[in-house]
Amino acid sequence: MKDITHIRADFPILKTKVYGKPLVYFDNGATTQKPQCVIDTVSDVFTSYNANIHRGIHSLSDKASEEYEKAREKVRSFINAGKREEIVFTSGATSSINAVAFSFGERFIENGDEIIISHLEHHANIVPWQMMCERRGAKLKVIPINDNGEIILGEYYKLLSFKTKLVAIAQVSNALGIILPVKEIIEAAHSANVPVLVDGAQGVQHGVTDVCAFDCDFYVFSGHKIYGPTGIGVLYGKEKWLAELPPYQGGGDMVENVTFEKTTYNELPFKFEAGTMNFPGAIGLGTALDYLLSLGRENIAAREKELLDYATNRLSGIEGLHIYGGSPFKISTISFLLNNIHQYDTGMILDKLGIAVRTGTHCAQPVMDRFGIDGTVRASMCFYNTIEEIEYLGTGIEKVISMFS
Ligand code: PLP
Question: Residues with Cβ within 6 A of ligand 1?
Answer without folding.
Answer: 92-94, 122, 124-125, 170, 174, 199, 201-202, 222, 224, 363
